[in-house]
Amino acid sequence: MRDAITNLIKNYDVTGRYLDRNAIDELKSYFESGTGRLAAAGVINANAASIVKQAGRQLFDDQPELIRPGGNAYTTRRYAACLRDMDYYLRYASYALVAGDTHVLDERVLQGLRETYNSLGVPIGPTVMGIQIMKGIVKEQVAAAGIQDTGFVDQPFDHMTRELSEQDI
Q: Any idea which residues bear N4-methylasparagine here (predicted)?
């Protein structure tokens, strides 16, 4: 798994350049946001089950057809699979927060996900909505934990949303 530092160094190494002012500034930003990123991951870890439960409840309140007969979350098995997937996205979002880089999402979550969902007939739209709902809940909880700037929380959730949305045309 790569992080912001190894990714930055790799990019400079591939082009045979020394770290310039932009690289130094990027590293400085990574280290300055480190405490907040770790605290956010701690909030997610401590509250993962309730975040997923709350996000699922909100998603199914907003999209009740998903849990009605014929919906993709109809039956206990499908409902549980939806919540399991939401937990999976949340866990990997926490890894990306700590790493300060979204490559782990590409490698471990997004590669093959669209194809799997399409083959199973799982709609991508509600998946994207669930990810964004979790982002909002996490941001609220991180802010409640005393972290002033929660902007970095957006990155992994928005990356998953963007990557899934671009492919669901």
A: 72
Task: Report domain extents, the chain.
Answer: 33-167
CA-wise closest residue to 161 among 140, 134, 122, 121: 134
Residues flagged as binding site: 72, 77, 82
Element (H, E) at 107: none
Distance of alpha carbon 74 from the chain centroid:
25
Can you tell me the distance from the alpha carbon of 60 to that of 12, in angstroms, rounded to the nearest whole number? Answer: 46
> What pLDDT is recorded for position 168?
40
Q: Which residues contact 15 (CB under 8 A, 6 or more apart)?
A: none
Residues 89-101: tens digit of each pLDDT? 999 999 999 999 9
Known binding residues for (2R,3E)-phycocyanobilin: 72, 77, 82
Please tell me the pTM assigned to this model.
Answer: 0.90
